Task: structure prediction
Amino acid sequence: MAPEAVTAMLQCLTGDGAFANPASLQHHFGERAHALIEDARADMAKSLGCKSSELIFTSGATESNNLAIKGIALRYQHKGRHIITSATEHKSILDCCKYLEGIGFQITYLRPDQQGQLSLDCILAALTEQTILVSLMQVNNETGVIQDIDRIAHALKDKDLFFHVDAAQSAGKLNINLANTPIDLLSLSGHKFYGPKGIGGLFVRNRKQTQLTPLLHGGGQEYGLRPGTLPTHQIIGMATAFRIADESMQEDYQHCQRLADILTAQLKQLDGVHFNGAPAHKLANIINVSFDQVGADALMIALRDEIAMASGSACNSGAIEASHVLRAMGIEGDRLYGAVRISFGRYNTEAEIKQAGQRMVEEVARLRQLTLE
Ligand SMILES: *Cc1c(COP(=O)(O)O)cnc(C)c1O
Result:
């Protein structure tokens, strides 16, 4: 986490801080917590280009995605029961869609090209009279590939449907201006931009026009869309991290680009290295790479105490299953089963990346030698 976010959180936990229930407006202590939360909401809304009243807090992007997808589906099913998404989405989207299929919705899972990119034509071709929702991620969490959300949003603007964007990987890393981009719903996750885990947000453009059936029922917090006591410390931590990410976006970007260049150059010393995902259309902080003749599991086990690598997405690790993202891109064989994902960020150093690259090169060479023997 950003150290500034940790400090801000600590000030919401103890008796001399904003510890009270932010819904308890009958006393000063609750009012103080309430004011902090509303300032945090206003700050985040301002940098996203939306109104404070359009940003609600959730437990993370998984919940935001659930609320957006199921919330729209259940509320608008009388208008149609068709949803369009892509086969490379996060499981929190795909599993919602699978659930909805089970209760009679029809889902189109678009496939990207080999580089991980969706064409606008294939999105438009999938639309039917029954389509009520299109849900696409801005940046893929396994490959870093960026979709042209702005262009897609404008192409869908005049259609009678909702457009949801999972921005968990892009918020704080790419500029998002909701004032100029006709997106109806957008999901955020605090821990993806150096905030705490267990907090996120959902942008809902104009609640009168974008109505959601809530997942939870309870107190009236967050307009009844997400009842439950607001976690002051989590919200303040996320908003502080978001402000810093916004301020240092350019610098973070350049830093990650530099680290990516170093790592890429090192790995290219090896033969049979394949970088997955369109190099010209991706964020630098995620590198997805396959090595001929080396399985992802063998490489990850060999380096498990030194490098935090993943195959597939972190949420799936444990289950030995090839990446659904790479599979949907049409990647097969060694290149699919050998793919590992490395991500890094603001607080990684060049020395760390060089060491990681060096160790990967050594281990890949060693593992290849073993298969020869
Ligand atoms: C991490 C992630 C999520 C889930 O976010 P949580 O806050 O961890 O629930 C959803 N979508 C994408 C693209 C992600 O990277």
